[in-house]
């Protein structure tokens, strides 16, 4: 059916064009022979083709444009006729004898154009006569194209300032009156199209109307081009008359398009000075009109106008643009009770964008917009509509992007209240956006109040807003994507903690306490991500306070290392609820090292004690035990704060646990690592050669036992790597001057390794062979180097 209709329409158009061309041919012949009567006859017949009602607006336009081209030629002929003695008044009378009204009016408009150009009558009289007579065509499509033709032929003949048609009898007001009257009649015809035909063709009619809208809008463009339309005339006459027509037509399509036209075609300064009038029409529009887009475009234009020059900014304050826009938006939302929340929020986003561009220094305006948004959202459930949440994220992101400073956003009392209306997922997204803004701009959080406000703002990442414990939540959604997103969110919080800083230790300690309060409330799963950065932030403060061991000036609240270490101890204990014993152990050792630098022996000893307790009671995995014991040994080796008794206790514990590891190779490596606990190179360091030798001999015995076990279980000895590693330890202490490590002991170990490698039961291992060869080359190098070290190595035969 549709294809048949299209084919019919193409056929009707072809017929119309053929009829038009046929009559145009005879019209041209009459024009060439200066036969006025035949010219009028055939032109009227040609224009009769425009009387059709069977064509869609799109097809009718094709036919109209062909007729328009022919009328241009006819107009030139009429001009020549006046020169040949035929008066324009006679022509004006003569064309009115055409049989049908539509051809008659087209011819009348054509002659009228020549009449105005001749200046034999005031332009306003001719224009008034034409615009009135065009009322004779009330068919919407035919009437619109006729009036469009009238507008086209008269636009360069309006009595405007500086125009040749301006005179005593003709004023700018006459030109304005003509265009306004033509606009009003065209709009009525355009709106009438909506109510013709059956309901089932409503969509088709709306499409056809959309194709014709520019014919109506051109009148407003003509108005904007009239030089004489100054601000006063626009304010007193043009805008009120146009808005009256817009409001009274009560048509959704017309109202939206015409409001958009007004905003686009007239100057920005006019909009600013007539803001109240323009905005006053908005609440009177139909509820279905997309007023959000209209107001958004208006605010965008005004924003661009403000950005164009600093000189115009006082005008915005003078006319109270923000107050008027804010008030108008409130009235529109109130009038359109069915407006969805996303539409309301969109309006506030546009208003906020306008405010940030025009009045960036007025934080009270920004907060007022956010407050209005809160008022709109209050009493409603949290937004879960994706479009609505995107609008709120845009609303909250705008101040961050404008000021590049979270500190300014924290001053806005309504900012967190808007965030509260987001669902849990979007709240997290917004919190990440806030953190990214802080990181991008390298913003420092320098006061406890700011930290409190910020962490309250990003609470969606710190804890679960819906009350579900995070560990249950994550265990339920245990697939990799959810885990990865969760880790990224918590890593963002961890990076944020490193942005905390204040040169005043007192304030810095307050900041740490505030953040600690928030992150400890976040549930055990988050602690593994958020506690470590907080610990290192506090340790950074400890380093700054290094040397203080008590209250300053007797103030109980002063920040001292002791007080911070107490706080650190309590914070690390919270990790046991995760549980994360390996992480807690590492942090205890970090704190012990910091206490060592502050010369606080009891504190350092307590942290080591806690580390050993965790090792004994919580670290069960054999690999984790190996890592943990090496961390303990390495940290203890760097400690210089301990007295003899405490150091002996800790080293004894370390060596004891080293020998109790599950696998023999792990035992061996841990035991020879313990040898460094008894020989420290510092000036006041421990140098106990005998105990070093005991550790190395014990490591040898364990390595030998490992070889024997491998021989029993696999029928062949394992690689000699352990022996080579122990040999390197012997060489290290030999060079450091340990008297218990002799060249004879090294010689014996070299021979032992050589024998083991030549044994048939030893498993070949290229890496072990290369390691041993490198060690022998090192010994040879030291012998050849000469000097005191060369003499020491001289007796070793390789």
UniProtKB/TrEMBL annotation:
Q: How does it sit in the membrane?
A: Peripheral membrane protein
SUPFAM superfamilies registered for this protein in UniProt:
ARM repeat
Record bears the keyword Ribosomal protein:
no
UniProt GO BP: intracellular protein transport; retrograde transport, endosome to Golgi
Q: Does the keyword Transmembrane helix apply?
A: no
Q: Which GO terms describe its cellular component?
A: cytosol; endosome membrane; Golgi apparatus; late endosome; retromer, cargo-selective complex
What this chain does, per the record?
A: Plays a role in vesicular protein sorting.
Q: Which PANTHER family match?
A: VACUOLAR PROTEIN SORTING-ASSOCIATED PROTEIN 35 (PTHR11099:SF0), VACUOLAR SORTING PROTEIN 35 (PTHR11099)
Tell me what this protein is called.
Answer: Vacuolar protein sorting-associated protein 35
Q: Which organism is it from?
A: Coptis chinensis
